[in-house]
Specification:
two-stranded parallel ribbon, 10 strands, 14 helices, alpha/beta, 2-isopropylmalate synthase activity, 43% helix, 2-isopropylmalate synthase, single chain, 13% strand
């Protein structure tokens, strides 16, 4: 089994479903090109049947990107599939992503039919999609809550019909990592012909487990992760691309690799945040403004002495210029001296102590001491040492 993990980005489809995050055709093209530069394997560009605008956007993205696979979503409906195929006709590597709900919750209360009917519809949508493209991904919606035996039956049937990828979504973000991992392992062990398709994850973050579930699935045999930049998506969002990519990169013992140029992570995070009007929470892993910021004196002292004491990622690995030593009332002398040194000022031990006592008074008043306030502190009390 290959250790190369396919990164399937659905920022332009699932991410765009966030209220207020709709994108124009031009904006989709800009983000798609950035995703291609980032190194994703598949871009899910949209849901063509949903609106004329989305149809045109998928069509435009198909024309603009190069070797990356362009994917379009559809329901298990022939008209949907035809529309997706038409939108993808200019793509060098087209993929139709079609499927249907498989959990009893969806079968009996949403679709209001039988398992037997679901099985036939699943086979039918893949069979029909294969008339238009050679790369067909089938999604078993709400697979996380689907009985494993029935899920295996559906997956085996759609692979026989020609599905090249089978997507096992934890649609509601309900599964625990161990549970989701076992579901993937069950499919590996019980589906005839599973070696003929890639198993994909598509995890939502309703319980904060999307990243953990995706990693557990990879460890159990999945080889594609569906994710979004900054983890945006329906409700609490999707698996965060930057999180899974950096987990696989930093945990070498897992022995997995992706094609992502990690130095492009922070720039595209900022692009998506700005374009989609979706701020990144400051403490967001990898790309948050505080991800490489230190304000505790104990942490600051450790980082100044050796970055590895408190940072497992070099900021430059993800496109961030450097770590930030934030001066607050919790900062110590080491951090203060470090920041003063950045201003080109060298202090003796006694001078530093004098400035530090004055610094604490300022820090209690302003919360964060910026460079202007720091310069004022140094210039006022140690004029002879200042050389700005």
């Amino acid at each position: 089994m290959s250790n190369r993990i396919q990164i399937f980005d659905t920022t332009l489809r699932d991410g765009e479903q966030v209220p207020g995050c709709g994108l124009s055709k031009k904006e989709k093209i800009i983000i798609a090109k950035a995703l291609e530069e980032l190194g994703v394997d598949i871009i899910e560009a949209g849901f063509p049947i949903s609106s004329p605008g989305d149809f045109e956007a998928v069509k435009a993205v198909s024309k603009e990107v190069g070797d990356v696979t362009v994917c379009a979503l559809s329901r298990a409906v022939e008209k949907d599939i035809e529309c997706a195929a038409e939108a993808l006709k200019y793509a060098k590597r087209p993929r139709i992503h079609t499927g249907i709900g498989t959990s009893d919750q969806h079968v009996f209360t949403k679709i209001r039919t039988t398992r037997e009917d679901i099985l036939e519809r699943a086979k039918g949508c893949v069979r029909y999609a294969r008339k238009f493209v050679g790369d067909v991904e089938f999604y078993a919606e709400d697979a996380g809550r689907t009985d494993n035996e029935f899920l295996a039956q559906v997956v085996e049937a759609v692979i026989k019909e020609g599905a090249t990828v089978v997507n096992i979504p934890d649609t509601t973000g309900y599964c625990l990592p161990e549970e989701y991992g076992k579901k993937i392992k069950y499919l590996i062990d019980n589906v005839k012909g599973i070696e003929n398709a890639i198993i994909s994850t598509h995890c939502h973050n309703d319980l904060g487990l999307s990243t953990a579930n995706s990693i557990e699935a990879i460890k159990n045999g999945a080889r594609q992760i569906e994710c979004t930049i900054n983890g945006i998506g329906e409700r609490a969002g999707n698996t965060s691309l930057e999180e899974v990519v950096m987990i696989l990169k930093k945990h070498h013992w897992l022995n997995f690799e992706t094609g992502i140029n990690t130095r492009q992570i922070y720039p595209i995070s900022q692009l998506v945040s700005t374009t989609m009007n979706m701020p990144v929470q400051p403490n967001k892993a990898i790309v948050g403004s505080n991800a490489f910021a230190h304000s505790s004196g104990i942490h600051q002292d450790g980082v100044i002495k050796n970055r590895d004491n408190y940072e497992i990622i070099d900021p430059e690995e993800v496109g961030v210029n450097e770590s930030s030593i934030i001066l607050t009332a919790r900062s110590g002398r080491a951090a203060l001296n470090f920041r003063i040194g950045k201003l080109g000022v060298q202090l003796s031990k006694d001078q530093l102590e004098h400035v530090y006592q004055r610094f604490l008074q300022v820090a209690d008043r302003v919360t964060v001491v910026n460079d202007a306030e720091l310069k004022n502190l140094v210039s006022k009390y140690l004029i002879t040492n200042v050389n700005f």
